[in-house]
Amino acid sequence: MRPCVKTEIIDRIAWVTIDNPPVNATSTAVRSELLQAINDIQGCKLAVLQCAGKTFVAGGDMSEFDAPPAAPHLPDVVNAIENSPVPFLAILHGSVLGGGLEIAMACAYRIAKPGTKFGLPEVNVGLIPGAGGTQRAPRLLGWEAAVKMACLGQLASAQELLELGAIDAVSDDPRSQVATFIDRPFVPVSTRDVPPSQIMDTLGETVRRSAKGRIAPLHNFTALQWAAAPYKTSQPKERTLHLALRQSDESKALRHIFFAERASSRPEALRGTTPQPVASVAIVGGGLMGCGIASACLNAGHSVHIVERDVEAAAKATDTVRGLLQGALERGKISEEQFQGRLKAFHASDIYADIAHVDLAIEAVFEDLAAKQDVFNELSRVMRPDALLATNTSYLDPNDIFAGVPNPERCLGLHFFSPAHIMKLVEVIRTQSTGMSALASGFAFAKGLRKTPVLAGVCDGFIGNRILAAYRRAAEYLLADGALPYEVDAAMRAFGMAMGPFEAQDQSGLQIAEANRRRQDVNRDPNERYVTISDRLCAKGRLGRRSGMGWYSYSAGSKAPQCDPQVEEIIFDYRAKTGLSQTKFTAEDIQTQLLTAMANEGARIVEEGIADSAADVDVVKTSGYGFPRWRGGPMHWATMVGPDALIATLNTMDQASPGSWIRASKYSNTSFDQR
Ligand code: NAI
């Protein structure tokens, strides 16, 4: 095996270089070779610790976290660096994260290249640092920066660390400064005094508020406070807690979704396929989605042209895109220069000939098959025969949308989520004709926008909206059988969802789901239970937040949804007319049934080959539908509760709504009966 750590001694300066691509993670090999290097450099005046490649150590090797920890352990390596008779100077670049920052903090001195980012992101995978990170950070960075990094997962810049006195210099050419560190006095960080902690009450409140059900931020806060005790007694406590948290449900879920996201963005089928370059993008339809997609493309450095129905609509789209960019400027996300650059790269008109040259066109007009087909007729007429053509349709069949387009292998779905300049998920839809090159291009393009692409086949609603439909149906059955909307929403929020199903419908507008139900009327299985409560709300003009009322009412000036007796009346009236017996559902009953509905639909989607894997389904739900990452997604949840529990819940749901749930074969009743 090639070595991961190289040591070269020149004029009694030891140059210790970690070279463990891609991110110099602190694998077992790196840890043991670092320990060896510390032994090999005795007699030197200074040791310079640096990394090859694009970054300093950017974390631990998470693939090792499921196995029992292997020696040498990181805390021992970090302590050996701090206690080495040869003082260490860390040269930092790229991302100095987790174990990387723990190593850097154990060095006697630190120089960073401009642009270096620092952080303790263990909290993002449900952990606390385990090698002195929480004990050295308050001593080196102060409480505020330590809490922001360890509890909130925030990153800090080299300049911020310089201002905090946590690094010695920021330099484009750190090597030229090495000699100035020989014999420079220093105080090891772990022996320094901890600063006074008056602000900890306020910081603690911020951490508690941001935790939203997660435990890792709270554990990080507790561990930071242990720094008040001597390092020798507090660091072993940190290590013990770190190892215990590796076994927590939260950490397992977050690690699952971390690996799931990495896998979903590199589908097996696309290995070795070269994507087509995309520099210029046309978007047809500059409404809610078109403008959001335009803004995301501009932020990624593409030139963008929106084609609208007429000049007025094009002018309106220009205003909307400008507004989105202005918002980014005001929030400090982009500079004035970048703002101006993006405006220059943007155009809008009502003329197809203006986009004849572009590499990719994304259609985002009304959800109407004929309108979309007309758009692609125009696009195929004016654009290059090899230009990529994509639709953002939510529910229509892209095979129908692209019917008759020449060279259909270049056609695909790129399903963005609202607001498209913010939401990470993009479902990349493969039609029966989509070629590998177009798919690979869709993935490369989405990744270039810093989105999370997931491959999906064609079915009603693709992956995400199809599961959403099952979830909503299960929620409406609960209303019919005894629950109220605010009870369902509160239960799902308590589970960790960003919003409950009824609040979420109010947010997006009930007419979207209604139009969808009407479209499905023709093909709906007559045995499937159909609850008309939603339809009754729509008939009364209760279309959601924008109409001032939906499942809740919204008074002007107040953002909070209010329970509305009229909604209860509609529900009670429906129950009375259908004569259904009523059940008192607990929050746990509600959570279990709705999550089971999602997991069952997700499993069917995988069995039908619409999604490549259960992990892909989890990525869709966590990155596009407000499912809490720290729960790992519905399929991970199903794995945690086990098939027996799911089958039992499906049996209960079947009893309440016979013939309404088609089961994934892995949850079929037969296998339950055979046990
Ligand atoms: P929207 O109604 O806000 O915008 C549609 C725009 O298309 C309008 O500005 C309209 O003037 C323009 N348009 C209509 N026909 C046109 C034509 N022939 N040529 C040029 N422009 C034309 O609709 P929205 O919400 O942006 O949806 C667009 C598409 O994106 C739909 O297919 C929808 O299903 C899909 N989608 C919507 C999501 C949402 O949350 N609203 C989420 C994901 C996908």
How would you sum up this structure, described in words?
The chain folds into 3 domains: 5-247, Alpha-Beta Complex (2-enoyl-CoA Hydratase, Chain A, domain 1), CATH 3.90.226.10; 278-456, NAD(P)-binding Rossmann-like Domain (Rossmann fold, 3-Layer(aba) Sandwich), CATH 3.40.50; 464-667, N-(1-d-carboxylethyl)-l-norvaline Dehydrogenase, domain 2 (Orthogonal Bundle). It is 46% helix and 11% strand. The protein has an 8-stranded mixed β-sheet with strand order 12-11-10-13-14-15-16-17, sandwiched between helices. Strands 1-2-3-4-6-9 form a 6-stranded mixed β-sheet. Strands 5-7-8 form a 3-stranded mixed β-sheet. Helix 23 crosses helix 25 (634-641). The longest helix has 21 residues, at 587-607. The chain starts with a strand and ends with a helix. Bound molecules: 1,4-dihydronicotinamide adenine dinucleotide. 1,4-dihydronicotinamide adenine dinucleotide binds next to helix 11 and helix 14.
SSE layout and pairing:
Blueprint: E1 5-10, E2 13-18, H1 28-40, E3 46-51, H2 74-83, E4 88-92, E5 95-97, H3 99-106, E6 109-112, E7 117-119, H4 133-141, H5 143-150, E8 156-157, H6 158-163, E9 169-170, H7 200-211, H8 216-225, H9 231-246, H10 249-264, E10 280-284, H11 288-299, E11 303-307, H12 311-330, H13 336-344, E12 346-349, E13 360-363, H14 369-382, E14 388-391, H15 398-401, E15 411-416, E16 425-429, H16 436-448, E17 452-456, H17 464-481, H18 485-495, H19 501-508, H20 510-520, H21 533-539, H22 565-578, H23 587-607, H24 614-624, H25 634-641, H26 643-656, H27 669-674
Parallel strand pairs: 2-3, 3-4, 4-6, 5-7, 6-9, 10-11, 10-13, 11-12, 13-14, 14-15, 16-17
Antiparallel strand pairs: 1-2, 7-8, 15-16
Bound molecules: 1,4-dihydronicotinamide adenine dinucleotide.
